[in-house]
Amino acid sequence: MGAILVNLVGLLLIVGIVWWFWLGPKRKANKAMPTADKLQILVKDGVYEPDHIRLPAGRAATLHFLREDPSPCSEWVLFPDLEVSAELTLHRDTPVILPAANPGEYPFTCQMQMYRGTLILE
Ligand SMILES: [Cu+2]
To answer: 110: which of 29, 68, 85, 115 fits an S-S bond (Cβ 3.0–4.6 Å)?
Structure first.
């Protein structure tokens, strides 16, 4: 009975350590997302993920689009107010360079405006 209890405690300790290493860094990464050096946007299932991106105004930035939607609709991403557009290669990281701009909200969409996102410069 005592041995079982010791094993159980050991098992819980291992689970705890695994949980810490598995989930700890991930949570940190999520927290750092809005200001991370590499801003990745997943293009999948009709949504940009994340669809709201906050960046400092007056500074150029690079967004990395990862397109996982084969439909031609998702092929282009357009930032009409910034006069930026980019063709997204399927399953490939596509850097999109944004110029420095004034504070404000800048929508970005696919060609037919089914995918929608908002860039917030502040
Ligand atoms: Cu579209």
So the answer is: 115
